[in-house]
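ok trying this again, last paste got cut off
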Amino acid sequence: MSGPALRLAVELDGDGAHPAAWRRAAHSPEHLLTPRRVARVAAAAENAGFTLLTLDDGVLPPGAAPDTVGRIGAVERAAFIAASTSVAGVAPVVPLTYAEPFHVSSQLASLDHISVGRAGWVVGEETRPEAARAWGRPLVDGAAARARESRDGVEAVRALWDSWEDDAVIRSVATSRYLDRDRLHYVDFTGDTFTVKGPAIVPRPPQGQVVVLGHPDLVPAERLDVALVAGRDLAVVASAAAGAGTPRAFAEIEVALDTAHATAEERVADLEQHAPWTDRGRLRHIGSAAGLAALLERLRGVVDGVRLHPLVLDEDLPELSRLVLPHLFERRYAVRPLPGASLRTHLGLERPANRYATAAVPAGEETR
């Protein structure tokens, strides 16, 4: 199916999508949590032409011994990547099940300032009861309760981003004025389980609103910019994308590619000896680079973009960079991000107006 060019995102958490991916990594295990490793993978993905880099996270360790049992916080990694890249967007996963929306708002607004308008946010959730103990909070029990926290949390965060008007910062040395206090606003948000007064402590993000991505079954569509849609076949993905009700929809795809040293099936079988590759209900491509390129071509017109989850970053990212993305760019099935543009611009999203700003009445014109 023909359609507009795709935007490409890639998940860069850990060593890959498989819990035992570290066993096939090109580095020793102790290097996983080093800044050099984080920067190297992000640079490789940006140079390949990905529009967006996402970073999974959660308060609990991502695995169990003997597999990977630790990670650096996604917001901290995203800030480091934002300062060491220049084109690709950066979107950490930040769950709202227990986190304070006020703090989340400040973190993500700061990330957008650091990246000069390249920040995104993947809204996650904490499903394990142990997370409540780690946060020192009462258990949020059940899918409906977690969805409530995400719904109210996203709305509060969005309101806080608008609590500073774009020209609230004055920085006038001559008058010793830093802020126009009339352009700061109390959000006065009341949710089911919390309230937020405001205003924020960080100026409005360069994009106005950081790009918000999430799953429509976890966050209401009207609070999302990009829906992350899943499905084990194209028909299910197409139906989910059509019914998402969001400005943009990205398909979730898990990827294992043939390499010069082993087929995709052999690589998966090798890792399956140690741990199962959990079925998350996503599209999954296990095979050649040409086959993945063909799948992505078929997704044009069905979704606006894809988020790839490589089996092993050190093995699959080079194949994506060498064989898949160049093929898509040459045929204009996908587009590279442009230097100097915001993530919203890359995704074709308008910069939203501030909900609290009042339109000035032109001189000499009376209000009727």
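PB: full thing came through this time. The chain has a mean pLDDT of 93.
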